[in-house]
Amino acid sequence: MFSYKDIGLVNTKDMFAKAMAGHYAIPAYNFNNMEQMQAIIQACVETKSPVILQVSKGARAYADKFILRNMARGAVEYAHELGADIPIVLHLDHGPSFEVAKDCIDNGFSSVMIDGSSLPFEENIALAKKVVEYAHQFDVTVEAELGVLAGVEDEVCAAESHYTKPEEVIEFATRTGCDSLAISIGTSHGAHKFTPEQCTLVNGVLVPPPLAFDVLAEIEKKLPGFPIVLHGSSSVPMDEVNTINEFGGKLEAAIGIPEEQLRKASKSAVCKINIDSDSRLAMTAAIRKHLAEHPGDFDPRQYLKPARENMKKMYIHKIVNVLGSDGKLAK
After folding, report:
1. What is this structure's pTM?
2. List 6, 64, 85, 93, catalytic entry
């Protein structure tokens, strides 16, 4: 058993309480490698923002769970060296089973998500409760999910979404004992969140359908003061998509969640917003551009440096202009 407290990480309890009281959301950024981690920590130190470092099942398979744990340890020390001891959570994103969640808890994660959203209601409750009972022994916080998001991201895949039913949230939260609840109100995984047919053409731009803020409001009434999480919240910035396509990529009809809707959500009980695809797009756009303009470069440092800078710029933008978590360390 390896405790997250031994490497300076925190769980989400105080972080979420402050976010709800301050009407902002915590950035939950997925990472798979050193450049992503560096960009995230640099952005959060410069903006004085708390952060959740998220690791998916796919990331654990790609980078190795022990390397990722030590990268989180390094993130804590890196933030300190940069001049700000920001609160950092190491979180399992979309944990598929009790066994995976337990392994993360035993190996230094301070928060885990158990995703039983595809299961029948009673089975989802049973699985989440089992994870909660184990995690709480070690002061690890647990996020569960009710409702189904459409889209594809790593191993998470669903053809269509099903909104969270407000009438189920009290029973679910009470019986599972989870610390936060991921809901479905129209966000979606991946870079292709909507088809063009689902969108409205406004001034030459495809605008996706709005998030179901009425469903969110009903959930807030049922669970006042309870931390709510939004998955699949990348905005898929068109400048990055256009750069990728300009330099040899093929991302057709990539459509994300409008940032003004995420800003609105972050002022509610939504205190954690997950962003992954935007980081992938920023990294890929910078790499494609650099290699096209410098075809003789073969040193990874030559193209990963601009990729890291582009991701950092994106992270700062999200923190300051979308989530509102900048400058919140002293509050």
Report:
1. 0.92
2. 93
